[in-house]
Amino acid sequence: MKNAIKAMVFILLFLVMLRSLTYMLRTNGPIKDIFVGFYAEPEDTIDVVMIGSSPVYPCYAAPQLWGEHGIAAYPLSSNVQRPKAAVYLVKEALKTQSPSLFIFELRQFTAADSYMMTYYMEFSRGVTDNLKYSVNRIDMIRALVPEEDRYSYYFDIFKYHSNWRSLILSDQRTAFIYERLHPLKGLLIHEEVVPGEKKDYSDITEELAIPPEQEEVLCELMTYLKENELQALFIVSPMVLTKELTMQFNYMERIITENGGTFLDLNDYYEEIGLDFARDFYDGGSHTNASGSEKCTAFLGAYLEENYHFTDKRGDEAYAEWDVAYAYWLECQAAALETIEEKVANGNYDVGEAE
Fold it and tell me: How far apart are CA 354 and CA 34, in angstroms?
């Protein structure tokens, strides 16, 4: 019996050490920092969780929302985030937080899942490999990954075992329990400028169906939210539009509103936002830079304050870290805007294009 207990303790310790080692070896970068930061937030302190692909984390500045409205928001966002991941991210968020509102970015719902699996499957690891080990993570892998490929997703140390050099990085060593506060609450500030061409399709009322598998995911997500009495806002972030995309957004708007949901397309409010396609994007009109982010966040904050009820928590000692994040954002934002202004004034644009 003693030997059996010793063996069990040894196995348990080994698994704990292996888990922590895997967390530290996972490739460092902005997406890992976002998720590690979310896990580090104290329980039941986040008001809004934002879920979606890469438009989210550079477009909506959580520190700004805090500083201007006292709303604590956090993005669970990753590049080319497939819609199937959304419900699992909701479940993951609910393990430690009780947000009053979930916000879902809808762009990826316009793309066929088979297309993303063919050309962007590696981005699935942006969510699967940035969750803590849990049953929910296993369920997500089963939903996103073909059966024959799941092994290296379940045990992602097989992918990251060669990242030994990351152990010399202090910020990676502190991720041994996958918790480390993000200084900007998940925001990534961009000071690059690549102009885009503004397209006006406001007169388009026709609809175009999104891929059927994405419509099924959207409906299942809305059903889950309704059954669990979770409040949600579905948004489309500013971008260079096409007629086809506009028609697909119209299609999703009807589905969402007919099912009692709330839909907000920021592309309908360029004037109110003050969006300038010559200066507010870092890649030609798909993702906002610091200038566009500040404008979009100001608009979203006003919308949230007008349409939802949030308690202004500014001045609450439990949220002192948010005051620190806001002060840091003001410093970083000022520097980024200065750089953007110089680039626009000199016509010194970066090289890039919309993704």
Answer: 23
